[in-house]
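Issue: ligand-bound run for aspartic acid - logging full I/O for the record.

Environment: standard queue, default settings, no custom constraints.

Inputs:
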Amino acid sequence: MKQLTLAKFGGTSVADHQAIMRCSKIIQADNNIRIVCVSAQSGVTNKLVALSKADLSTSQRQVLLQEIKTTEYQILTELGKPASLQSELDALLADLEHLVSGLDSQPSMQIKDELQAFGERMSSLLVAAIFQSQGIDAVNFDIRTVLKTDDHYGRAEPQIDQIKTLAETQLLPLIQNKVVVTQGFIGSDQNGLTTTLGRGGSDYSAALIAEACAADVLQIWTDVSGIYTTDPRLTQDAKPIAELSFDEAAEMATFGAKILHPATLIPAIRQGTAVFVGNSRAPQEGGTWIRKKVTNKPAYRAIALRREQVLVTLKSPGMLHASGFLARVFAILAEHKISVDLITTSEISVALTIDNPANSTQQGIAPVVLQKLAEFCEVSVEEGLSLIAVIGNHLKDDSNAGGNVFAELKNCKVRMICQGASQHNVCLLTAGDQAEALVAHLHSALIE
Ligand code: ADP
Ligand code: ASP
Ligand code: MG
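Outputs:
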């Protein structure tokens, strides 16, 4: 083995038999790919999340289950229904049905993780079988034996050292003569109970496994030909970026370019793994390389948009010259593992934004947190806002960088602006219904 490459295929890349066949071509074309990390079939995780909702009727549950079964059995049928695979898939679907039929009105977060994990578990089973049908010596591997996390269900924290040790003993020996196909998104806690890393977490899983196995390259195969100057669904003028630095890509992921889970670049930066993002439908188009060092570092590189932001404003008359107010606020947020994206302060108030991920069992900010904050300050909450991040380089030092962005904001209702903490971003918060138009405008003014 000259180099070790880990390839991650997202939901659309493994959506059906034809899509998985395209993945097998990518594997066959590159002998260095020894580990494959897959998402659930596109749409399946949304359905699994919906299944755990308390207000669902029995017939609605049946419809969702049936839709999931149809997706999975369709792939099996197109593969020619090999008997052993059929019985493994039957068994997984029977376990899923059993879990769903036993759900009470308020399933725990652990049960929700258990439920969501079926998507990735069925996917890796089918993907490994299709690879085998194409002559690839593939084996399906349960990543929960390696990807250890804490028990913060719904957004579990990986235990890096333990993952490395387990990968060395359980995973690395296998790749000597097999292509290991495994699940993204899922892990297990210290008691062996299933956890998940949060929506979109397969990218993060892939980066963690690549780190643990000291892979040279991490490939993220998705439905667009690399990282673009903005989400290509927002404007036709978005252009693919050939090369990005770790810093720029990490900012893009953090501020919402859905193409990468926000934490993906953290293990890659630690390990120095080069990351490639490409299109499994059109691998020949090339994609984006994310590396430690890049030659071109433009002031404005890309624009990211994150919807469904919650703005929490905390006002304390006592904050005037009072130390400890922010510490108290952040202690409560830390206790509830809530991360803050943007923050601005005045003498007596602080405003902060919190992500409220769609289709997730995670909640932006729970009522109990608001109650605790309300014990010592006035709390107001605004929802339905969008965070726009202009991402680039030397934005702190460039005397025009912020001004150029502000000059484009005429007639926009901007609720918050943050500049100066990072060389790589200028961020603003705007009304949700204005956001897409503003992204397109900023893109044409600053990037094109
Ligand atoms: P996967 O299922 O492969 O993980 P995702 O849907 O999570 O794929 O991410 C891919 C999507 O990310 C694209 O279809 C695109 O709409 C969106 N996206 C957001 N920002 C960007 C960007 N800057 N460049 C490319 N795609 C982006
Ligand atoms: N299947 C999971 C999700 O849809 C993880 C992923 O695809 O990255 O969120
Ligand atoms: Mg994704």
